[in-house]
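Hi,

I'm pasting everything inline rather than attaching a file, because the server keeps stripping attachments. The sequence lines come first, and each chain or strand is labelled.
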Amino acid sequence: MLTIRNLHAGIEGKKILNGINLDIKPGEVHAIMGPNGSGKSTLASVLAGRADFEVSEGSVTLSGKDLLALSPEDRAGEGLFLAFQYPIEIAGLTTTNFIKTAVNQVRKYRGETSLDAVQFLKLMKEKMALMGMDQSLLSRSLNEGFSGGEKKRNEIFQMAMLQPKLAILDETDSGLDIDAIRVVANGVNMLRNKDNAVLAITHYQRLLDYIVPDFVHVLYNGRIVKSGPKELALELEERGYDFIKNEVNEAQEA
Amino acid sequence: MNTIENIKERFQELSSSGEVGVLSSMSKKAVDSFNEMGVPSVKHEEWKYTRIGGFFNQEYSVVPGIEINDLSSTDIDLFRLPGHEKVSELVFVNGYYSGRLSHIRSASLTVLSLGDASKNEFAGIVSKYLGNSGKYLKDGIFALNTAFVQDGLFIHIKKGAIEPPVYIYNITDSRSSNILAQPRTLIYISEQAHVQLIETYTTIGSSESFTNQVTEIVVEKDALVEYYKIQNDAIHSSQVSATSFQQVGKSYVHAVTVSLNGGVVRNNLNISLAAERSEAHLYGLYFLKGDSHIDNHTVVDHIVPNCESNELYKGIVDDKGAAVFNGKIFVQPQAQKTNAFQSNKNILMSDTASVNTKPQLEIFADDVKCSHGCTVGQLDEEGLFYLQSRGINEKMARSLLVHAFAVNILEHIKPAPIRDYVDRLIDERLEFDKL
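And the predicted assembly:
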């Protein structure tokens, strides 16, 4: 589904990603872990199409489409979703108006008809119930004054509304207590099926107790330096990132 | 003949009329002031960024002081505001009140010429309050309006009246020539009266129009007034619109100025807080495109203790638009326990758009709470990316963000039909329907 080949990217002339290779198939959950500054969030930003980042080399395809040639909105139309580490607050734009616009634009892109008010409301109520979200959030400005947990829940609610092929969770666990992580992870798990996939980017292993990965990749210095089964996450939790760094450095010296 | 020559000719007619009384002596003084000061140029401190001199070098007809128009009620239908069936509608054509086209739908609303009002039971009010806004408007353009004060209108709202809204249409008929229109109004809101005033400006015809308006509003004890000025006139229509509130009794003023289109638009909004425990809330939204120039000058004058003023103006400037904001707050020495807040926020949408913003606080009392601030920036890139990442195309995302920026001004338009109307105008501008 997602194929990344030799991806090099940076910001303001500074190289951050140095040749990423990754394959994600439908139905899989991949986790990307790594120490601070290893390029995890950059990878998420580059995949979603944030304008500040420049791709200097490599390719990314989603179901065969050249993702890098598309605008952020078209990537969303193709089925990419990024759950932000820091969701943006937009005063004056209600959550309902926002999500309704987004759903109908994505439907338009996918050649589907717009939802009418009744259909939309039904879908929205269903997905809010899934996330245990309070109805009152809908008429409030998008993320404005939301707690950290509410913001992250809102991200997964949006994911539920947009039904992406590939969901990238960028440090979705950061700033959340254990109960909030459980709610968010449950939401993600309920949305999983054989046709979609999840890329969970995280610094800590604890999210992976709830969103269990099929593969764990370790990112260091802008490269995937180690990949393994879910047990790799536990090893990292136990031994810290230093053993990875040492392995990499020894390999380079050798 | 240029406009100034036309004006001088009208001055001649005025002086030969031989009338005596409050209005004619006020008019005579104003003629002298205008002759002395002329049309304000950019050398005038309050006119540094706004040029209107050019209009007076061209030929604008200064129409004589009687209502001459052949407009019919159906002509007005084209731009009546929603909800008009249930409200009082006052129509001005080329600066003159047209009784024929107006509808008074309330017994507590009295409308008569300033000339008549200065001679009947309202004479005391007229002589006490007419022209007081000159304290804040020391320029030739104000004097020019005052020179023709005889042609003005007096509006009286009875004590305790809970009025239906009053819609005021300023129509300039420039079908046959360029027009200089100079509406002048004194509005007296009696004790305990509540009223919503909604004012719009429309030019019929493709010749240019210039409106030089002065409105003075006296607010008595326990009165509440909401005032909405909606400017969405043609690009060949310019105006200087001065609106001054004198809060002479403990009262509440809520004013919202929405400027969406026009050539050169200059608004002077003056608030004189002259009775303790009065409140004034001022909101403004300007959204410029093309070559529009919109200048909001506000003065809030805290004269007595224990008053509160709150001001928020927001602007979106696109294309080659030029916006000016100048907000003065005076806190006079005796005005202790004043709360005065002011904020001006701007978004520039293009490289050729400009904003000049200047907050000015002059505080002479020591026990007060005052704050001010202004910002000029661009649309939030992070917000834009967030919306785009949800599948919303860039143009739509920009429109949503601009609309979101305007919301906390729009929500202060309390009459729902007017709020919806303005919201629609903004949506049209943002072209939501085409996205």
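Chain B has a mean pLDDT of 94.

If the labels don't parse on your end, tell me and I'll reformat.
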